[in-house]
Amino acid sequence: MRSAEADVHQAELNLGYTRITAPIAGRASARFVSVGNLVSGDSAQAQTLTTIATLRPIRFIFDADEAAYLRYVRLAQAGERPSGRTVQHPVLVQLQGENDYSHKGNLDFVDNRIDPQTGSIRGRAVLQNDDLLLLPGMFGRLRLLGRPKYDAILIPDEAIGTDQSQRVVFVVQPDQSIQPQPVTLGPIIDGLRVVRTGLKPDQKIVINGLMRLRPGLSVEPQETQIAQPKPVDTRKAG
87 Cβ partners below 8 Å, 6+ apart? Predict the structure, then answer.
């Protein structure tokens, strides 16, 4: 009698194992076994039934080089930007074939070490992915907030010259002569180059004909308004 009861209990236990509930929500892949097949759940010979990928939200893994990491740390130490370890900074992601960084998310993890083999540190951002466009395994480019908004001087790239290892602009002096002035450059914003240091808002610079210039040369400046370059549509007609 007790042997029969034990068999029933074992059968009920085995029946309970036929219903498997995933610990996460997401999209399931193809099934690897058919309904009715006998599968093994032993840790050494466990069979995979399917795989599930969490899509909403989805995590974006990226690697930053050591120089970028140090730049962000120094901005935090100077009080210009909170540390990414304490604040979830906004990020923007651009996928292949897109012209804009239109996918928004937030930084939620920064690793605790630099990889000595690659010289980079790993970070992670979370995107809500409400339209389910992003899938695991996709590649994209990520922008991370570097510093708060600030007023910057913007000039065309053609106004920038080179003096040995320095980047310079030619500034018009009060006597109409020109002198090269070293500048520190930043990124391109809306087609114009950011000048971080070396140029004041009230200074006039030469934009055209840099190849003919030399220090001390007198010029007759003609003021002009810097036009913002038109965006180029790189999409192919089809």
Answer: none
Tens of pLDDT along 189-210? 888 899 988 888 888 888 877 7
> Where is pLDDT greater, at 151 or 126?
126
Cβ-contact 142, 181 below 8 angstroms: no
Alpha-carbon distances of 182 from 167, 189, 209, rounded to whole Å: 6, 20, 18
Cis peptide leading into 215, omega within 30 of 0? no
Residue 47 DSSP one-character state: P
Cα 142 from Cα 85, distance rounded (Å): 18
E strands along the chain, which residues?
27-28, 52-53, 58-65, 90-95, 103-110, 120-127, 140-144, 153-155, 161-163, 166-172, 178-182, 184-189, 192-197
Encoded tokens for 19: 């219903």
DSSP state at residue 202? T
Structure token pair of residue 143: 């922008």
Assess whether pLDDT exceeds 50 at residue 7. Answer: yes
Q: What is the C-alpha to C-alpha distance for residues 104 and 125, in angstroms, rounded to an integer?
A: 10
pTM of the predicted protein model: 0.61
